[in-house]
Amino acid sequence: MSAYLFPDVTVVRSYAMSGRLDTLRSLLHGRGRWTAATAFEAGRTHGASTAIASIVSQGWLGEPLEISDPDEIQQVQLRRRAVFGGHPDDPLSRLSEAETWHVLREWAAYADGILVTDDPALLQHAHRWGVRTQRTMLSPTLREPT
User: What pLDDT, on a 0 to 100 scale, did the predictor assign at position 1?
Assistant: First the structure.
């Protein structure tokens, strides 16, 4: 089987906000996956909740991968703050990045997985650590406003 593709929350939001989830689904070609934090954070996207709900109901990113082992949770929290700059007082800050990173680096079943992101800092960090990446090439005019 081909490698799983893990779109980051910004990618999911951008496609949802632009009404182009069908394009993202096509790009992922049945290989998309997401973590529980990515699903949760995407679901909080103002103005795109119906679109995000369709991902869940249609199941094309699979069941959100849940990190439940206490040692793994501790590793994710440390990485969230130390590597991704998550705020210590906000446990959700940068959690989706840290969870996805953990799954790609630590879970054997996803070791050949690919991080789908357009975040330059995340791309650079992934390249430094040998994590495979793919950009979406979504037109900047379709991206979520910053």
Answer: 59
